[in-house]
Amino acid sequence: MMRIGTGYDLHRLEPGRRLILGGIEIPHEKGLSGHSDADALCHAITDALLGALALGDIGSHFPDTDPRYKDADSLELLRQAAQLLRANGYRVVNIDTNIVAERPRLRPFIDAMRTRLAEALKLEPGQISVKAKTNEGVGPEGRQEAISTQAVVLLESS
């Protein structure tokens, strides 16, 4: 049996925070605001995995009201979602993602993101696509107020 899941996340950019996407710290004058490390790419993938399994969303498993998840490493949350995936008898076929950010330019970091995500999920980097897009100056991403991410996962029973 095959299943598809989608995920979406958006975090505001603010000074004084680290910018972490796909488990990689990216040099930038602003970082993503959030209860955890605010890695929006990991959050979107986690939501896509949980959604494909019909197990709710990231907030139901790792609520921002729980102090255990304050400044949490989002790669670890992704690993826990992958454990649920395997416990339910599924494996990832592939993951396709978008990051929408006007700045910084993300192309130099994409291969490292794919490698970190693959390690966390016990996949090959070739099973994960990370694409960086701008919003052509439109919306909160275009005004450099936020970064959004989207993910689609394809699962098959193992």
Concise synopsis of the structure shown:
This protein has 158 residues and is α+β, with helices and mostly antiparallel strands.
Topology:
Blueprint lengths: L1 E14 L3 E3 L2 E3 L3 E3 L7 H13 L5 H4 L12 H14 L2 E11 L9 H12 L6 E6 L5 H4 L3 E12 L1
Parallel strand pairs: 5-6
Antiparallel strand pairs: 1-4, 1-7, 2-3, 5-7
Helix pairs in contact: 1-3, 3-4
Structural class: alpha+beta
Distance between the termini: 9 Å
Please write the CATH class name.
Answer: Alpha Beta
Largest sheet: 5 strands, mixed
Give the oligomer, counting copies of the same chain as homo and different chains as hetero.
Answer: single chain
CATH topology: 60s Ribosomal Protein L30, Chain: A
- Taken together, the total number of domains comes to 1
Mean pLDDT value: 96
Beta-strand content estimate: 25-35%
Name of the CATH superfamily: 2-C-methyl-D-erythritol 2,4-cyclodiphosphate synthase
- The low-pLDDT segments are none
Describe this structure in words.
The protein has about 160 residues and is of the alpha+beta class. Helices cover about 30% and strands about 35% of the residues. The chain contains 5 helices and 7 strands; from the N terminus they run E-E-E-E-H-H-H-E-H-E-H-E. Strand 2 and strand 3 form a beta hairpin. Helix 1 runs parallel beside helix 3 and helix 3 crosses helix 4. The longest helix is centred in the middle third of the chain and has 14 residues. The protein is globular and about 45 Å long.
